[in-house]
Amino acid sequence: MIVVTLAGLLAGGLACISMALRRVWRTARRARNGCVADAQVVGLVPAGGSPDEPSFLTLVEFRDGHGRLYRVQSKSMRSPPPYTVGQTLQVSYEAGDPGGADIVDRSIVIWLAATGLTLTLIATILLTDVLKYGLPEP
């Protein structure tokens, strides 16, 4: 049971690292294709949460490389909202689907990478101990 739990920790850590890397690579690929743009936060949309701590989606507007205006919502709720109305931030999008743009949020990448590295390190240390010293006696 301990080995399965530690393997799960390791798998979770590696999954977090993978998600962080995919976000970075996706934004870099889109930037190479000229599909990163400055966007303006135009609204914060209440989207659930508790009455004393509501969660919000961020609504942004940006123009693609052809000058067309798009308005998109963030894909995840946050509480408190990470942005303020009027703030400028970056979005990245696929050339064929600017309406599916993603907000470039480096804090999520850092959080995913740090969480993944921490879980992976803990699992590796504990798995190494189990392999070296064996499982504890029941």
Instruction: Work out the helix count.
Output: 2
Give the low-pLDDT segments.
Answer: none
Q: What structural class results from the helix and strand content?
A: alpha+beta
Number of domains: 1
Strand element count: 5
List the helices and strands in order.
Answer: HEEEEEH
Shape call: elongated
Question: How big is the Rg?
Answer: 20 Å
Instruction: Give the % helix.
Output: 40-55%
Let me know the average pLDDT: 93
End-to-end Cα distance, whole Å, is 12 Å
Biggest sheet: strand arrangement: 3-2-1-4-5
Main sheet makeup: 5 strands, antiparallel
Portion of residues in beta strands equals 25-35%
Structure description:
- The structure is a single chain.
- This protein has one domain (2-133).
- 43% of the residues lie in helices and 33% in strands.
- The protein is built from 2 helices and 5 strands; from the N terminus they run αβββββα.
- It has helices spanning 2-32, 106-133, and strands spanning 36-50, 53-63, 69-73, 88-94, 97-103.
- Strand 1 (36-50) and strand 2 form a beta hairpin.
